[in-house]
Amino acid sequence: MANTKGSSVEELLELRKKYILPSTPIYHARPFLVSRAERQYLFDENGKKHLDAFAGVVTISVGHCHPEVVRRAQAQMAVFDHSTMLYLYPQLTRYAQKLIQRLQPANPELEVCFFTNSGCEATELAAIIAKNYTGRHEFVALRHSFHGRSLMAMTLTGQSLWRHSTPYVFGVYHAPVNYTYRRPPETTPAQYARWCAEEIEQIIRYSTSGKIAAFIAEPIMGFGGVITPEAEYFPRAYEIVKKYGGLYICDEVQTGVGRLGKTFLGIEKWGVKPDVVTMAKGIGNGYPLGAVITTREVAEAMQGKVHFNTFGGNPVAMTVGEAVLDILESERLPENAAEVGGYLKKRLSALLDPFEVAGDVRGMGLMLGVEFVKSKKSKEPAPETLLKLMDAMKEKGVLVGKGGMDANVMRIKPPLCITRPDADWIVESLESSLKELT
Ligand SMILES: Cc1ncc(COP(=O)(O)O)c(C=O)c1O
């Protein structure tokens, strides 16, 4: 049943203009009005079913309103819905233990965590931990990255779109990202990957004091447009960071909880073991929940330094987080992400091959992107093509996202519970939209 209570798109737009900070973009020529949600589907004000192939910005993991999440959250809310970490309650430590156990098979060193309200706050805390542990303040991040909206997270972010003209935090430098599609034509993907990694060393040598607190990177770029590094990149980047005594902070806000298929963390795909992991979005399935997980040795650097937040470790958030972990396992959703994501990527590649405007199909599992260009030869970004496609696909019931420095990358990142027929729906809606457009 729709619950928009008679509000129309026009009325809500007016109210939004009147009361909300004017800095948040709204998707679509005619914005989508959400009335309700169920697993991988969103329903508009007329009750029309849509496939949520952007998952509320890569956040819905086990599905909207999953009955088990709802049941456990409601039960917890009825008992106590807020407390403070100044007291003891089992929900906090039970979830911490479960989350760490879920990470540990691949990362036995990650033993200690802290909960935040968002990914941004997790970035901020990870940076604080790295500074405390190393006694240094310089960071290397990547161009095209996104890490959140606080001053430190904005400084670490490597895209002008997301950087306002304010004085940034001192000591942050950006290395080139391993963007295979836009590499110099004379290089092979592997050569370019190695060159990008070596640039980290050059930046440390030339732009910093020669000592860094940390290197921070997303395993696959989210807002940056699903830029997916080659196998050579992260192992070499890691060696360099260790050579200069830095910590490796892995931002798993988008790539975690099995989105890349099978592995719980995205970085497992490259066999690298981070010192600090930040998570948010998918671990809470829409509930405000973030986490920073690190090694015992690194965590010890926070001994005696008070760190606290009001909502971190909220008992309902902990309960939701635990339910999400249980459902990911019982419904084998990381495996589903690999299976359906692999199928979807294959179908997208086959579909898009003949279209001049489809430059690149990339990503892994259910973190897929299609880069739109004016022509395959020129590779000139075509953001207006993407906008038209997004609107046309919405008419056909499929909601997708966008990203990339030039806003020309379609982001297909649905809840991990989508099925093959859903994947077909995405492909067919894109195919008919492209045919209309061209
Ligand atoms: C990779 C990445 N890191 C950090 C963040 C910040 O998370 P939040 O929006 O929860 O603050 C985001 C948000 O989109 C993200 O994509």
Write the topology of this structure.
Layout: H1 9-19, E1 36-38, E2 41-43, E3 49-52, H2 55-58, H3 67-79, H4 90-103, E4 110-116, H5 119-134, E5 139-142, H6 151-156, E6 172-175, H7 189-207, E7 214-217, H8 233-243, E8 247-251, E9 276-279, E10 290-295, H9 296-299, H10 315-330, H11 333-352, E11 358-364, E12 367-372, H12 383-395, E13 398-399, E14 401-403, E15 409-412, H13 420-437
Parallel strand pairs: 3-13, 5-6, 5-7, 7-8, 8-9
Antiparallel strand pairs: 1-2, 2-3, 4-10, 9-10, 11-12, 12-15, 14-15
Helix pairs in contact: 3-10, 4-10, 7-8, 11-13, 12-13
The chain binds pyridoxal-5'-phosphate (PLP).
Give a brief outline of the structure.
This protein has 438 residues and is an alpha/beta fold. The protein has helices spanning 9-19, 55-58, 67-79, 90-103, 119-134, 151-156, 189-207, 233-243, 296-299, 315-330, 333-352, 383-395, 420-437; strands spanning 36-38, 41-43, 49-52, 110-116, 139-142, 172-175, 214-217, 247-251, 276-279, 290-295, 358-364, 367-372, 398-399, 401-403, 409-412. It has two domains: 9-62 and 332-437, Aspartate Aminotransferase, domain 1 (Alpha-Beta Complex); 68-330, Aspartate Aminotransferase, domain 2, CATH 3.40.640.
